[in-house]
Amino acid sequence: MQAPASPVLEARDLACQRGDRLLFRRLSFALGPGAACHVTGANGAGKTTLLRALAGLTTPFAGEVVRSGTLGLLDEGSGLDPELPLARALAFWFTVDNAPDPAAIMARLRLAPLAEVPVRYLSTGQKKRAALARLIGQQAAIWLLDEPLSGLDTASQAIVSALVRAHCAGGGIALIASHQPLDVPGMGSFAIEDFAPAPEPADADGGEAAP
Amino acid sequence: MILALLRRDLAQFFPFAGGGAALPVVFFVAVAMLYPFAVGPDANVLARTGGGVVWIAALLAAILPLEKLVARDIALGFFDQLRLRGLAEETMMAVRLIAHWLSFGPVLVAATFPAAALLNIEGETFRLLVLGLLAGTPGLAAIGLIIAALTASLRAGAALSGLLLIPLALPILIFGAGALARQDQSSLGFVTALSLALVAIAPFAAGAAVRAAREN
């Protein structure tokens, strides 16, 4: 699954809801090859919902998503079997994705010493790194990263930034939802609150009142 | 990708591969062992009612693995990741159905041999029992998968799935155990038909349920 020549990720007038609540509307952007974009927003503002809609896992309330190129998603779920040793849990995805040089990927994310540790014993940060290894092995053209830095130590955060830089330098697209800044030059950004629907008339006096 | 998935699913659900998946078989044999103590050692009573007890034990044993069958992988994001790689939920569920059946069907049939010895079931009755279980367990697996997928996003899903399985499994039980009472093979054809229909529906029903579970 090599990245196609020119991956595209585009949102057109996207609106998503969670339960009965509209989280954002009229959200449009277009990302071409090599583009990175940082999505910010408070907890519950709709970052994860946006990423899942972009991934095609959920149907948006309105608008459409245009996507070309393979897609990798890094989110809460690692997709790694909890009771398997890390190396075997990752091996499943490496096999499915036909990943080149799994050992190098694991070394890159400093996972080699953890190879025999069952996934459920890994810490939050270690699990996050394991999920990143899965993502790299996938060689997807478009990366959707949901809080890729949470739980990571400083050194690992630098690795993530470097991975995103390399991914974009190779013509890939990265959309990152995160509270923390990433060291990626030329990265665009938008706040998801800018697309929040107008407050209800009842609490309109507060202006930017929290929902 | 499908072969890799089947291998993974089998490793997850196969008894004795860890994770306590041998529980249904232990449960099944335990019922067969305890029944003679409960009703007394009368060989005639055991031979006449034993087949029905084995069927009930098989049905209840099929409920035990349901909790882990779908809900855990939804929580893990496992199905999401497969979806991103272009695999349809229906395919994932078809693979899971095969793995689920392989993990308890054949083992249950094998466990019928010691169970039958304990319950004094032999001859034609034994043959009908084994044939019936072979025909009926795929249907039980299919019902189990549908229910496990439907209840995966519910808080009390596991308790509910047991209740839901019972009425749906009744036809298989009636015709499967009925064959024993009348010593008549023809109703096993009906069990097979039920099983095949359920197996055909299950991947679509369960696949739709897994998709729907993402929306909340």
* Largest sheet: spatial strand order of chain A: 5-6-7-3-8
Radius of gyration of chain A: 18 Å
User: What is the H/E order of chain B?
Assistant: HHHHHHHHHH
Oligomeric composition of the shown chains = heterodimer
Question: Would you identify the regions of chain B where 5 or more consecutive residues have pLDDT less than 50?
Answer: none
Mean pLDDT of chain A: 87
Shape of chain B, please?
A: elongated
Helix share bin of chain B: over 70%
Rg of Cα set of chain B? 18 Å
Low-confidence stretches of chain A: 206-211
Please give a structural write-up:
- The complex is a heterodimer of chains A (211) and B (216).
- By secondary structure, chain A is an alpha/beta fold.
- Helices cover 27% and strands 25% of the residues of chain A.
- Chain A contains five helices and eight strands, in the order βββαββαααβαββ.
- In chain A, the strands form two sheets. Chain A has a five-stranded parallel beta sheet with strand order 5-6-7-3-8, sandwiched between helices. A three-stranded antiparallel beta sheet of chain A has the order 2-1-4, covered by helices on one side.
- In chain A, helix 3 crosses helix 4.
- Chain A starts with 7 loop residues before the first strand and ends in a 20-residue tail after the last strand.
- Residues 206-211 of chain A have low confidence and may be disordered.
- Chain B has 216 residues and is mainly α.
- Chain B has one domain (2-215).
- Helices cover 83% and strands 0% of the residues of chain B.
- Chain B is built from ten helices and no strands.
- Chain B has helices at 2-13, 23-39, 43-63, 66-69, 71-76, 78-84, 89-118, 123-150, 157-182, 186-214.
- In chain B, helix 7 (89-118) runs antiparallel to helix 8 (123-150) and helix 7 crosses helix 10 (186-214).
- The interface between A and B is medium-sized, with 27 and 20 residues.
